[in-house]
From TrEMBL:
Cofactor note: Binds 1 zinc ion per subunit.
Family of this protein: Belongs to the KduI family.
Protein known as: 4-deoxy-L-threo-5-hexosulose-uronate ketol-isomerase
Recorded metabolic or biological pathway in which this protein acts: Glycan metabolism; pectin degradation; 2-dehydro-3-deoxy-D-gluconate from pectin: step 4/5
Species annotation: Terribacillus saccharophilus
Annotated catalysed reactions: 5-dehydro-4-deoxy-D-glucuronate = 3-deoxy-D-glycero-2,5-hexodiulosonate
Domain of life assignment: Bacteria
Length: 276
């Protein structure tokens, strides 16, 4: 488990490109047969990837969280962005197709991750945060989640957003999580942009052509910076930072938040003329 410290915006303004990448970009999440985890001090979230190969992989505790098992004091939201697989939660098995989501609450002890076909492995993206109570485990098929159409082709941000773990959906202590899919010809996400000092956020970019690149914007609205990213990379967004971007082709991204509240619409909008 890699540890990432929280940063002050004044400090972040002094970072070189390499320092920005080291602090906020998660370049490699999915390695065959392995678990990759990043513990961020931004709201004490854990961002990770699990790619089972021929055998199942168990998610267990780590010294960094000083717990007897991973979800002793935590909750977790998980998306499968790969081939079909299963997740076993204390002996109960859930089928996970591509883009399916599962929420697993505090107190569940045995978590086993499997791929149905080793040649087309499942890729489990997880986002975990501290939890104060236990909500029930709940699996949702991507096909069963109604999407909200937003944006327009003229502004290159025609997209469908699916909110899955949120106030009106799967219940959690503090995690809010969903997926946004951009239509062909659209490339901009979350613009006009916003901040929310109540919550940190993480983006995982997926379904981006391997030759394409994402230009993710971050930083204070008047002190913007950017990260050049590629497919299946994630970025940590501190509460004070904007989080938006544009790519050289269309794509999808999984957004995940944790912090003071779960209110998706609680955003501090940034007008276009504020950006620098």
């Amino acid at each position: 488990m890699e540890l990432r410290y929280a940063t002050h915006p004044d400090h972040a303004n002094t970072f070189t490109t390499e320092e920005l990448r080291n602090h906020y970009l998660i370049e490699e999440l999915f390695v065959p047969g392995e678990i990759k985890l990043v513990y961020s001090m931004e709201d004490r979230t854990i961002i990770g990837g699990i790619q089972p190969a021929a055998s199942s992989i168990a998610l267990e505790s780590y010294d960094a969280i000083k717990a007897d098992y991973f979800l002793e004091r935590r909750e977790v939201g998980i998306f499968n962005i790969g081939g079909n697989g299963t997740i076993s939660v204390d002996g109960e098995t859930y089928e996970m197709a591509n883009k399916d989501c599962i929420y697993i609450g505090k107190g569940n002890q045995e978590l086993l991750f499997s791929s149905t076909n080793e040649t087309e492995p499942a890729k489990y993206y997880l986002f975990s945060a501290p939890a104060h109570t236990t909500y029930p485990t709940k699996h949702v098929s991507f096909q069963d989640v109604p999407g909200d159409a937003m944006g327009a082709k003229e502004s290159a941000n025609e997209r469908v957003i699916r909110r899955i773990i949120h106030l009106e959906g799967i219940q959690s202590c503090q995690i809010a999580m969903g997926i946004t899919i951009l239509e062909s010809g659209s490339v901009w996400n979350s613009m006009p942009t916003h901040t929310h000092n109540r919550r940190m956020e993480a983006y995982l970019y997926i379904d981006l052509d391997e030759r394409a690149r994402m230009f993710h914007l971050m930083g204070e609205p008047t002190e913007t910076r950017h990260l050049v990213m590629k497919n299946e990379q994630a970025v940590i967004s501190p509460p004070w930072s904007i989080h938006c971007g544009s790519a050289t082709s269309n794509y999808a991204f999984i957004w995940a938040m944790a912090g003071e509240n779960k209110t998706y619409t609680d955003m501090d909008q940034v007008s276009m003329d504020e950006l620098r």
